[in-house]
Amino acid sequence: MSHKAAGGAKINRIRLNWLKPALVMAALFLGANALALPAEWKRLAEDPGDEAKLALAISHEKVRGGFSDMVPLANAFLEEAKSAPSPEIAAKYLKGAVLCAPSEPLVHAATLKNAVALSDWDTAFRSGKHLFDTLWSDPWFLIALPVRLSLAFCLAGTIAAAGFLITLFPYYFSIFFHDYRDLFPVRFRRYLPNASLALGVSVVLAFVPGILALFLLAAFLIAVYLPRKILVLFTAVLVVSVLSLSVLNYTARLTGAPGERSFLLYRVSKGDFGSDLEREVAAAFSENESERMLLDSILARRRGDLDSALQSARFLLIKEPENDLALMYVGNILHRQKDPVGAIGVYEEAVKAAPDNWMAFYNLSMLYTLRLNLVNSQTAMQAAEALDARAMQKYEISAPVIPGEINLAEPHLPVSLIYSQLSRPVETSGWLSDAWRLFGVSKFKFTPYYLAGLILVVMGLAWGANRSRLSVRCISCGSIKCQKCHPRGRSPLLCDACWSLKNASNMDETNLKRRREAVQAWTRKFSRFRKAGSILFPGFSRFIAEGGGVFNVILGLVWAFSLAWFLFSLFAPLPVYFYGAASFPWGAFVILTLCHVISIRTGERL
Ligand SMILES: [Zn+2]
Ligand SMILES: [Zn+2]
Fold first, then answer.
1. How many A from CA of 181 to the centre of ligand 2?
2. 479 close to 494: Cβ distance less than 8 angstroms
3. I need a labelling partner for 555 at 20 to 30 A (CA). Which of 221, 359, 430, 442 fits?
4. Which DSSP state fits 442?
5. For residues 580 and 312, what is the distance between their CA atoms, to the nearest angstrom?
6. Closest ligand (CA of 485)
7. Which residue ranges form the domains of the chain, and what is each CATH number?
């Protein structure tokens, strides 16, 4: 009855690009592309006496097309529920949605929301549990979420690393440069240090061009001067930012051809079909691929063309005679074509090919029952139960039931098939190679893991280095206090002049005045520096200026994460699963602003 209406079923056709996983997830789960609900089903859903009839109608449709889930139709029910005049009527449509697609998280989320509106806590609790279970078994959710979260994490790391370097470099570079100059004999100190440093940097950039090399070089030069607390945190964010290269690479798989193929398999597993989808499958998979034959068979069956469905599944069996999935598809189609003997023959092969497949034994038992071969039926059923009693019970709870008919279980597309696409070799997409070039990774094919190792080694050496002979800054006037030039300073923290000033030892008026001015100038400069830091880099600048502080670290990390989230929500919206593509850029923006306000307000009090 609903066949014609469902014939044009499609979730949607959006070309895969950088945003596609997010957009399509949103489209899928918002029900933006729901079908029009057949009028008969609408009437059945609204009439309380006809609930059983609706369940029967949905069962018929499922058995006809070999569906395990029918998300496009479930979306149609959700649309109706949304525009229903009251939560009570919405609840009826939601029941239909759950019947159509029991393993789709969105239907449970919508039911949960509606049950809360009705204060129906029993239903709310059950829907919440179903939502949790279905969400964590949804293959696309399990791919997209970790990739997105790790992208946000790495972006935050990169932002934090940049914040650290920008605030640390001006302060520590001149100390490094003083010590570097001291390595040269006195008569060469005028030009040679600058020239040799410029030459060294150019040589490095000639071999490894790009921002990344410059960035790491700058970090390595000052590493040994950093207080150890800062060094540890800086190393951590540097490593994370370098690893973001791998995450970018993985994201490219989701957005390139492997992701597209993977997503097509996912769509079919969700009950999508229609001529648009068939065209996309034909474009993404070549004719002799097993996946193509499998998808062709499924889509033909959903279209109602059992002969083509059978043919495609048999083509696959010529290629892979022991493919139990293909055997089961053939068996189920033969059963639909009222050929139980043929179906039994195929299923007997299936259980031989896959003796651990409970569903093959279950269906074989059903077919024996149909032939009234009850002894064999029982043996097969016991085998199925022994293999996976839980899966069997789970299936039986939501299996379509048509009184007086024996139905075979429809095998799901294996999740491994969806995942395996992502491990196929990939052509790096355009935007990604641009990003890599920016980091300077195009010339040398080193992996980010080696870079992470290099960072750890260099920073480890900097941590362990003997710092007693390194210069420091005088905390009073900011001048560089060199342990070589003035080996016997009076104080480890103050330059000799400032020490004399403090201890009011014999200093003439001119010198005293000059010293006071130098101290004042440095104090002004440093407080300006701090102020700019607290405005631009909440948390980090104070962590550096104060040499630590848990509050500063937390503020800095919250700031980096919210900035990453904000940027991310603009360029690649992170869908919050069941309420659509809302990645809440405003939420990120508010947190970001708060971080800056807190930083400026607390900075003023210093
Ligand atoms: Zn001083
Ligand atoms: Zn010196």
1. 8
2. no
3. 221
4. S
5. 36
6. 2
7. 3-137 (no CATH), 139-256+426-470 (no CATH), 287-421 (1.25.40.10), 537-606 (no CATH)
Residue pointed to by tokens 């079908």: 35
One-letter-per-residue 3-state SS of 456-495: HHHHHHHHHCCCCCCCEECCCCCCEECCCCCCCCCCCCCC
| Alpha carbons within 13 A on the beta-carbon side of 305 | 15
Residue 413 token pair: 């597309």
Convert the pLDDT of each residue in 336-371 to its tens digit: 999 989 999 999 999 999 999 999 999 999 999 998
Q: Which of 117, 548, 66 is nearest to 334 (CA)?
A: 66
pLDDT, tens digit, 9 for 90 and up, residues 136-182: 888 777 777 777 777 778 888 888 888 888 888 888 999 999 989 88
Amino acid (1-letter code) at residue 562: S
DSSP H stretches of helix in 399-471: 415-420, 430-439, 448-464
Centre of ligand 2 from the C-alpha of residue 485, in Å: 4
Output the CA 175–ligand 1 centroid distance in Å: 14
Q: What is the pLDDT of residue 349?
A: 93
Amino acid letter, 495: C
> How far is the C-alpha of 125 from the C-alpha of 183, rounded, in Å?
72
Residues 222-245 pLDDT 10s: 999 988 888 998 999 999 888 877
